[in-house]
Amino acid sequence: MIKEFFGIDGFNRTPEGYMSWQHLTFVTSLMVIMVLCAIWLGRKNRNASDKAKNKVLIFSAFLINIIELTKTVYYCIDAGSLSAIRDNLPLFLCSIQLIAIPLAAFAKARLKESALDFVFIFGLLGAVLGTYAAGQNYAAYPVISFINVNSGLTHTISGFCSIYIAVSGMVSMKKKNIWITITTLTCFILAAYIANIINNPDYQYNYMFLTAGDGTPYDILYNMVGGNAILYPIGVALLFFVYIAIFYFAYSFFTKKSKSKNTSEKQVCNV
């Protein structure tokens, strides 16, 4: 049973498949738990001190990195070499949360604000893409296996932090910090792109999905540009930046609308 969970020397059972009922049931269960916990703790701490709010992020920061570390150890044991670390670098969009969440928990001033905003913007997106859209995992491994359970937990922790930050009132979304978010993302994209070039043709990992879609929704863009080695990675990068712009616009629109509604209600009450 343990061998089957970790897939030592390969799995004896056939993977249930991407978008199978087993895949959807498993990730939906994780997402429901994620949302409920985030809303419960967020509402509980909404009026608490900043120190109390921060404790949840500190715990999440340690937990997500410990889980990720176990995956790295697993890959090294499975490959029988520390060289597996090179092929499993934290250079995916979701991997940025391994750094962003600790920064959101421990940093100060504008760095903390920008980290909180980064987790808020990309945490939930990463949770959805890393669970429902993870065709590269669920097509290759059984649903209940170490790799999929580990991946499901790290991605939902990111989503949990995103919702918790919003519900607990830790979001700032100041326009003056947008450049920090964009710079952080740009650095990771460049690092991932360089890592992909270095690893090819010894291809092991497709960091940030800048080389191919690998069974994820990025395949749509990949097919649109005919797999062009220049247009495809540029297109992926542009999608990230467009997402940031849309997110900021939507947040600004809805917060202004909410403030306007509250002001109107106060004026009615005063009358």
Describe the structure.
With 271 residues, the protein is mainly alpha-helical. The chain has helices spanning 2-6, 21-45, 50-79, 97-106, 109-129, 135-138, 146-167, 178-199, 218-224, 231-270. The longest helix has 40 residues, at 231-270. The model has no long low-confidence stretch (mean pLDDT 89).
Tell me what portion of residues adopts beta-strand conformation.
under 5%
Whole-Å distance between the termini?
70 Å
Taking all Cα atoms into account, the compactness measure Rg is 20 Å
* Number of separate strands: 0
- Helicity range: 55-70%
Helix and strand sequence:
HHHHHHHHHH
Q: Based on CA inertia axes, which overall geometry fits?
A: globular
Biggest β-sheet, characterized? none
Structural class: mainly alpha
The pLDDT mean sits at 89
Low-confidence stretches: none
Number of helices: 10
Characteristic key phrases:
271 residues; 69% helix; 10 helices; mainly alpha
Write the layout of secondary structure elements.
Layout: H1 2-6, H2 21-45, H3 50-79, H4 97-106, H5 109-129, H6 135-138, H7 146-167, H8 178-199, H9 218-224, H10 231-270
Summarize the structure.
By secondary structure, this protein is mostly helical. It contains ten helices and no strands.
